[in-house]
Amino acid sequence: MRATVIHAPTDIRIEEVPDPVVRRPTDAVVRVVNACICGSDLWAYRGVAPRVAGQRIGHEFLGIVEEVGAEVSGFARGDFVVAPFVWSDGTCEFCRDGLHTSCPRGGFWGEVGSDGGQGEAVRVPFADGTLVRLPKEAAGDEALLPGLLALSDVMSTGHHAAVSARVRPGSTVAVVGDGAVGLCGVLAAQRLGAGRIIALGRHEARTAIARKFGATDVVAERGEAAIEAVRELTGGTGAHAVLEAVGTEESMRTAISIARDGGAVGYVGVPHGGSAGVDVRQMFDRNVAVVGGVAPARAYIPELLPDVLSGAIDPGLVFDRTVTLDGVPDGYRAMDDRSALKVRIAF
Questions:
Q1: Which of 86, 96, 97, 315 could form a disulfide with 155 if both were Cys (CB 3.0 to 4.6 A apart)?
Q2: What is the pLDDT of residues 320-340, one digit of tens each?
Q3: CA 24 to chain centre
Q4: What is the pTM of this model?
Q5: How far apart are CA 21 and CA 16, in angstroms?
Q6: Angle at 220 (CA atoms; ends 186, 252), nearest 5 degrees
Q7: pLDDT tens digit sequence for 72-121
Q8: CA atoms within 13 A on the CB side of 31
Q9: Cα 209 to Cα 188: distance, rounded to the nearest angstrom
Q10: Which domains does the chain show, CATH number per domain?
Q11: Burial class (CB in 10 A: 0-12, 13-18, 19+), 77
């Protein structure tokens, strides 16, 4: 079969790789229907996150179950499924607590020795604890597929930021970052009943999506100017909940500074700019909580799925380009130069 492989920074190739097979009785093999490129994949593409030459890449996909191991009880050949970006056994104490990303037997797609999501098929360890079944008829609904695909990572991650920041009905929310996760954070805050949502972003195409998702205000400034703008919009007090979806020192400093006294920052941006932006003294003096981390998507997908299926939310709007597998290298280039927000891969 063919799959996406990274050899060096900016060197993304589509190559022939061995077909996945059931290795353990808890495995399943899934034929991929849709996958996508994540903003976090760009850190490997840019050389910020190290990768071994020839390593697989990609961690978001929908697919059809082709084969299951002897101990898989929850899935059968022909089932349509979504895979969260981390596999997990579903039985350990962390999985039972809803923190599947800390499963000691879990892992991330694309790790050395594992299949990446940007390929024609994937071996799924611990299928019963990892996969979520979707309605079979949805596999043929082209309009629905992008929203279902977003559940694998960006919508679940935006929701994690909102939950971590304690978004409540009527609350004022600020979202730092206008990438796919930040936009899904806006949608998550709207879904949870936020009364006002301030989106921080300067790309007009992206802030237009933010407004569709429920943003009531847009702040294009950065740094101190952004902090002042949010304070002015909130009468000097700041936001009850702040969603941080970038992961840089500046973005974290901004997030903490625009939080209301007694508020919370839900951070989900993958850290790649140091931690000096975490001003513990400011947090202490103003009773600002900072909570978040890697989103346990497997815990959130069952909760979010009915709203996607019903059309109550459509996180699929973050996909602004669709390519075939052969077009994946161009998709990386487009996301890297910001000519695309998020690229979907259709098989």
A1: 315
A2: 999 999 999 999 999 999 999
A3: 28
A4: 0.96
A5: 15
A6: 65
A7: 999 999 999 999 999 999 999 999 999 999 999 999 999 999 999 999 99
A8: 11
A9: 13
A10: 2-153+296-346 (3.90.180.10), 157-292 (3.40.50.720)
A11: exposed
Strand 239-244 vs strand 217-219: parallel, antiparallel, or unpaired? unpaired
Helix (H), strand (E), coil (C) string for 91-131: CCHHHHCCCHHHCCCCEECCCCCCCCCCECEEEECCHHHHC
Given a cut of 60, whether residue 275 has pLDDT beyond it is no
- DSSP calls for 295-308: --HHHHHHHHHHHH
pLDDT at 278: 82
> Which residue in 89, 124, 93, 90 sits closest to 109, CA to CA?
124
The tokens describing 128, both together, are 């019963």
In the predicted structure, residue 276 carries a pLDDT above the cut 80: no
DSSP string, 45-106: HTTSS---TTEE----EEEEEEEE-TT--S--TT-EEEE-SEE--S-SHHHHTT-GGG-TT-
Sequence-distant (6+) residues with CB within 8 A of 121 are 1, 19, 20, 29, 30, 31, 32, 63, 66, 115
Distance CA 35, CA 20 (A): 17
Closest CA to 303 of 197, 215, 191: 191
